[in-house]
Amino acid sequence: MLEYVLPGDIEKRSFEIIGEELAKRGIVLPADQASVTMRVIHTSADFDYAETMCYSQAAVERAKALIRGGADIVTDTNMALAGINKKSLAKHGGEVHCFMADETVAAEAKERGLTRAAVSMERAARLARETGKHFIFAVGNAPTALIQLHEMMKLDVAGQAGGFVPDFIIGVPVGFVNVEAAKELILADDVPYIVNRGRKGGSNVAAAICNAILYELGRE
Q1: What is the mean pLDDT of the chain?
Q2: Kindly report the CA angle at 75 between 153 and 204, in degrees rounded to 5?
Q3: What domains lie within the chain, and their CATH numbers?
């Protein structure tokens, strides 16, 4: 049976349905994580995320504090770049970066035999150092981006000991090759994170997580 819902109420009704479905499944989301996990479910229509989303201690509050302080967001795809609410982020002094289409990144990746995603993470680390800003890394596609972040925590981009430590990592790449292993690396690292275990994820999920946090800030 069709349900008549006013255009302005569609999202609200969607979240009501998600809440009802979760209740039927006997799932109670932690209060501090619920808005993020529910937005991921809303984006994907996949209730598996209620079981597989992993958060470091006080992760959402930590991300909100970073954004309040003017943190930038780095993504590994132009799709996530397009999906993140840049206007909401700009209200706090932050902006979104994606270096995947940068010709110099592509050239360096080819020369070094790396993926563009890996080199993009190095580029973002250098920018963080140069600007002194905090950076949130939102990875929705490339496990090599997560692997590179993990490696940079041990060695910086110049090869010196005591490397670059991200302020926060959203690790939700999708796929089959090294995806699960890359996520487990981040779960084991000493860095604040939101990670979805398993093969599922995507640029839309990475953007949804960022937007859920931004919308929470907007309601405060």
Answers
A1: 93
A2: 130
A3: 53-219 (3.40.50.10230)
